[in-house]
Design goal:
two-stranded antiparallel sheet, alpha+beta, three-stranded antiparallel beta sheet, about 15% strand, about 140 residues
């Protein structure tokens, strides 16, 4: 036992100073999901193929192809199935944004789409008596 202690005192530490000294991410790393609303047709194949139920597509106007995608990062398994099933290449997994730790669940729910559509949906969800199809359910009153 003392031999191991003496040997380890003179060895270089095996740990790295990760948050302070960063290494490049691997080339094929699957990170945060990104959505391009301009290419989306609303076919919802990505939603059907997602095994973790991490993506929701909220229809604002089907005729004008206006959609908002709600992405739950805390549910995502980064399996890349949604990206492979998208026929119009509107989904990508980033290889740069992969550090997504957070102390609360609020930043884990990301809305993608046009800014005015996202603002409309969030305002609609904040109204009392709003349905829960566009945002978090309002608190029930007893």
């Amino acid at each position: 036992m003392f031999g191991n202690i003496l040997r380890s005192l003179f060895k270089k530490p095996a740990t790295e100073n990760y948050p302070f000294v960063r290494k490049d991410a691997p080339a094929a790393l699957r990170g945060k999901l990104f959505y391009d609303p301009e290419k989306c047709t609303g076919c919802q194949l990505c939603i059907k193929d997602c095994p973790a139920d991490a993506i929701e597509l909220i229809v604002v106007d089907k005729v004008n192809k206006r959609f908002v995608m709600r992405y739950h990062m805390d549910r995502c398994t980064f399996c890349d199935q949604c990206v492979q099933s998208c026929r119009f290449n509107c989904l990508n997994l980033s290889d740069e944004q992969w550090e997504m730790a957070s102390l609360s669940r609020t930043p884990m729910e990301v809305y993608y789409g046009r800014d005015e559509d996202i603002k409309f949906l969030l305002e609609k969800a904040a109204q009392p008596g709003a349905d829960d199809s566009c945002g978090p359910a309002p608190a029930e009153q007893a």
